[in-house]
Design brief:
- The protein is an alpha+beta fold.
- About 20% of the residues lie in helices and about 35% in strands.
- It contains seven helices and 24 strands.
- The protein has helices at about 5, 10-35, 60-65, 70-85, 155-165, 170-180, 390-410; strands spanning about 35-40, 50-55, 95-100, 110-115, 120-125, 130-135, 140-150, 195-205, 205-220, 225-230, 235-240, 260-265, 265-270, 275-280, 285, 290-295, 300-305, 310-315, 320-330, 340, 345-350, 360-370, 370-375, 415.
- The strands form four sheets. Strands 12, 15, 16, 17, 18, 19, 20, 21, 22 and 23 form a ten-stranded antiparallel beta sheet that branches. Strands 1-2-3-4-5-6 form a six-stranded antiparallel beta sheet. Strands 11-10-9-8-7-24 form a six-stranded antiparallel beta sheet.
Amino acid sequence: MEKAKNILTYNNVLRAMVALVIVLLLIIVALFFSRHDNIPGDQESGEFRSVVVVASGDTLSKLLTDQGFTNAQVLEIAGVLKSDADITGLRANSDKIEFIRANENSPVSKVVIIPSPWRQVEITPSADGGWKCTTLEIKPDRRAVYRTGEILDGDSFYLAGARAGIPDGILAEVYDLLAFEMDFERDVRAGQHFSVLYEENFADGKKVENGRVLAISFQALRGDVKMYRFKKSDGKTGYYDENGNGAIKSLKRTPINNARVTSSFSTSRKHPVLGYTRAHKGVDFRASTGTPIPAAGAGRVVARGYNNGHGNYIKLRHNASYETLYAHMSRFAKGVVVGTNVKQGQTIGYVGSTGLSTGPHLHYEIIKDGKHVNPLTVKLPAISNLGKEDKERFLEYRRTLDVGIEQLAKHPDWFIQL
């Protein structure tokens, strides 16, 4: 057996160094061609194409100059892109640029910028010797897919949804929609079933992104909750229950998604700080300090300040009947002051533990016609209901969609081509 001291000979070391250099060269070549994809033209067109994926540090000027464009041409093309396509820069690891020539040694005859799978911007020579810009909108291959799940013991809706194969973004949207009707802390129990119909967008046979939520069904404790996405005759889109009533309410029962209820609405509760019994006029949601607090509905800030009980608080007026109050904030959102109009879901402050509080949480109140009501049980008004003609169209659409859903439930690997 060869001794260890004789293994590392000069020749062995030299061979190792040569092998290392070869490997490094192969890596460099691979990285180059991963960004510069040369695609020879077919026999009919005879075009030569090369595709560049924009990398960090790349600029339009650099990439065009590398392809033989002059500085004057680069400036003209940049101007056309800005004025005609609203493109002022390139995004690294996202945008692609395709350069097309008559053959490998010819100058570039067309530049195609691909900022998204659904949009291409073509730059070609114009009749006056300059450059012109044409934008092509690409229609996605849109498919509706159906996923079903069941709440198991110890589950949250998010865990059950992820196990059912529903993407995170779709789950978050579904949660937002169901929050208008449900209290996820109290309405979710083991054994409940739910389903979601949503879009997947494809390009060239490959999935690119998820689309919109089309239909939801959830077996809640207080009855089944169903929502359908529907476009009205005026072009506006909303979500409606199986009877065509507006499913999107003017206020959300639980402003903070996935927050746990730690104290419910009560006419007599022993206060955790004061020690005696008094009414608890809202619902407490536990959340970590700094968690954004969204407005439960669109409205105007009518009060913002501090008192010993609520600590930092904000009150919103939504219409002639409804107001909401948010207490114990660590701080207010920038620019949200008395008189500010806010949108539903807009951050108005951040969770804290100011005032009479034993830990970080949101205290949330709904005031209807001057009286406090239970946010988790009060019947809330819908933002938009359907007129007679739209309701008839909706009911026909819903029946058709339900037939499709029934088939997808039997064949989970099927999809509806939209």
